[in-house]
């Protein structure tokens, strides 16, 4: 079992829909990241969370440390939101590396 | 541009050849990471430097792989005797020291081994 699991793996929705992507992890963490990857490979950091909730524009990220679960929400989705969204965690074991989920491929149709 | 840069962006090589990639981190960042991403998968950790010291290496980093960061600034990742299974996107990231340091990613180098 992977240390970081995302669901769904693929998601197709219509423009304007509310989107939720889920991430569960099995290790103790010091931080959780949500990343966005567009075709061509570049990765952009959206959020870094250690507790609670963060909001940036139409994006909202939440984390429940006790349940080892995080969600990324997109409100009023737009075709330009189409990308792969990746959850990654940094273990509390002292290593600085990130452990990544497999990613969720999101397609927003006009 | 003060972001993380990687060179080359694309590399096509024949099996058995050696390749070297370069990563230039954000200038004040003392930590540098290499990750590998195969098609349809999330990135996987390869190795990590703090300044010039290589502090951790993944078991994915076979003896054909070597990484250096000689002056604590740019880093190189060399793959010797490339195999088709080495085809992947090689990502570099950098961060400022401390547990809360957010990692900033470069655009990646896409390697294709034919």
Main pleated sheet of chain B: 7 strands, mixed
Please tell me the overall pLDDT of chain A.
Answer: 93
- Oligomerization state of this entry? heterodimer
Spatial gap, N to C terminus of chain A = 36 Å
Order of SSEs of chain B: EEEEEEEEEEE
**Ranges of chain B with pLDDT <50 over ≥5 residues?**
none
The coarse overall form of chain A would be globular
Low-confidence stretches of chain A: none
Distance between the termini of chain B: 33 Å
User: Using CB atoms under 8 Å apart, which protein chain pair has the greatest interface?
Assistant: A-B, 23 and 29 residues
Strand fraction of chain A:
over 45%
How many helices of chain A does DSSP assign?
0
Question: What's the alpha carbon Rg of chain A, rounded to whole Å?
Answer: 13 Å
Question: What report would you give on this structure?
Answer:
With 110 residues, chain A is mostly beta strands. In chain A, strands 2, 4, 5, 9, 10 and 11 form a 6-stranded mixed β-sheet that branches. A 5-stranded antiparallel β-sheet of chain A has the order 1-3-8-7-6, with no helix packed on it. In chain B, strands 2, 4, 5, 6, 9, 10 and 11 form a 7-stranded mixed β-sheet that branches. A 4-stranded antiparallel β-sheet of chain B has the order 1-3-8-7, with no helix packed on it. Chain B contains no helices and 11 strands. By secondary structure, chain B is an all-beta fold. In chain B, 0% of the residues lie in helices and 49% in strands. Chain B starts with a strand and ends with a strand. The model of chain B has no long low-confidence stretch (mean pLDDT 92). At the A-B interface, strand 4, strand 5 and strand 10 of A face strand 4, strand 5, strand 9 and strand 10 of B.
